[in-house]
Each structure stands twice: as structure tokens, then as C-alpha cells.
């Protein structure tokens, strides 16, 4: 039996589905028209990013239905509530002079129509946002980097944090990590230890980088399980940052699997990861060189806004992730950094 994997909708696809299908469906079900209620694309985008987190659009449709119900109540309150009131208003309209026909239009379309749902109205109807953008958590201090992850709901940015302290050389990993991700963290640490001098990390001759030092690497959102090899290059950047005291560039996100020899191997979900980086305002994305072919799936308008750095080795990643790079690192001849022209 063949198993067919169906990926979830991206945010851009959800917006198109809502604008061309879900909104009109909900308007019809609640007895409203486009002349009475308008939900702009920006509002739909906020609804998706702040009130829903799913692979499909079922929850999004429920939220749009809640908006329509709130507006339907307001519309109903603006119309006559009883037959007697309706008859009285009808008699008043009949005795109007011919040159006052505009009043009839005003009666069928009250002055506050159409109701346009903006960010404030969305918050009044749906309440405080359920999900906040993780970009607000970005810290301008060493030991923090932005990685890219794939989930059933699409791509997500993922912060990786590290700190060092006095100890006996232990590596602590937290954030409900799977075995593959734990192995990636150990690989990253050992690569940094073996390339400490090239990375500009000050160590005493003949001493190990971890001597009398403990390292704690944490992946926020600890209640969510995480696994996979694609965070390897991000962990390397975080460790180099914490040991050198230099900050990773705040406009860079990265993804890629590493090897003990410093090669950057391809990973999956490139399209979803790039879209997540674009939504978060990332300007440069570092991906494995062997994933260059996957950029064909990225929409043209997204490609124009993001600079892609294609890396074969960890040296390539570090040169692009840190402002000014590392002059002491050997420049990998296969480094390709370009603005995508696909």
C-alpha cells in the first residue's frame, strides 16, 4: 500500500482560499453581502497568523464565521425590529417628496455600511491574539540565532539559544528534542572545538574549549516536540557566537544538516521555510548548496525580496551569518552568495 503525504497549506495559499471562497461562503450563510461587510486581505493575514495554527483552513473558516456573526448582529440592530416599526417607516417613505429619493438608499444602506474589519475590530471580535510573532523575542546579544523548521502547518522560524557557565565540560540540551537533533548538537559542539582557533575563539594552548565550562543549548517552545537534522548549522552559529562574544546577524536565518567534517547537507521543506522567513522579515536565508534546485518552487515575488546564500561547508555559513565574517577561516571555494534570479 502506498502512502501519499499531503503537505499543509502555506499562509499565502490560505489567504487565496479565504479571499476567493471562505469569505463569500460565510457571508452567504449569515445573510450578509459584500456591501455590508468587507474583510480586507491584511485582516485575513492577521487572522491566519495570530488566531489559527493548522495545516488546513477549518479553524480559519470558523474565525471568519465568528466575524460574520458579530457583524450580522450589528446589521440586524440597524434594521426595524418589528412589523409595526416596518409599517411606520414604510408610511414615512411614501410621503417623501420625489426629490428626496436618496433617503430610501440611506435606509437600505445605513451610513456605517460597509463595515470594514481592521486590526482593532478583529481584536474586539476575536479577543487578544492567541499566537504572537516570535520575531519580538529576538535578542541582540551573543548566543542567539534564527533557524528554519518545517511543521505540518508549514514553515516556522525557530530561535536557538545558548549560554555558557563554569562547570566540568557538560553539554545540556533542552526543548523536548528528538535523538537526531541531540546528535546534531553534539556534532556541532565537536566541530567548533576542533576549529576553535580558526573561529577566533580564545583558548590557552593545550587546553580544550570545554575545560571548566558547561554549555546549555535551548530551543524555545518546550512543550512542542522537535526533531530532525536541519538545525545543525544553526547550532554551530550559536556556539560560535557564545564562545566569541559576537552576535549573529539579526536579518539572517539558516537551515542545513552538518557532518563532522563540516559539510552542509541538503534538507527538506525549503519552500515552506523560505516563506516563513519572508513572513518574519528575514532578508537573507542560508541554505545548503544542494537545495538550490528547490528554489524553483518558491514564488517569484518572494525570491525578489530575499537574498539566498548557498553553502557547501560550515565555513560558508559562518562567513555569511556574522557581520564581517571570520578572516581566519579558510574561504571555501564553493561558496555561492547571490540574489536569486530564478
Q: Structural class, judged by helices and strands?
A: alpha/beta
Q: Span from first to last CA?
A: 37 Å
Strand order of the largest sheet: 3-4-6-5
Q: Determine the mean pLDDT.
A: 83
Tally of contiguous helical segments: 11
Q: Describe it for me?
A:
- The structure is a single chain.
- With 342 residues, this protein is α/β, with parallel strands linked by helices.
- It contains eleven helices and twelve strands.
- Strand 10, helix 10 and strand 11 form a beta-alpha-beta unit.
Topology:
Elements: H1 11-29, E1 37-38, H2 41-51, H3 58-77, H4 83-94, H5 102-108, E2 115-116, H6 119-126, E3 144-151, E4 154-166, E5 171-174, H7 179-194, E6 213-218, H8 232-244, E7 252-254, E8 257-258, E9 264-265, H9 270-279, E10 284-288, H10 300-305, E11 307-311, H11 314-321, E12 336-339
Parallel strand pairs: 1-2, 5-6, 7-10, 10-11
Antiparallel strand pairs: 3-4, 4-6, 8-9, 11-12
Helix pairs in contact: 1-2, 1-3, 7-8
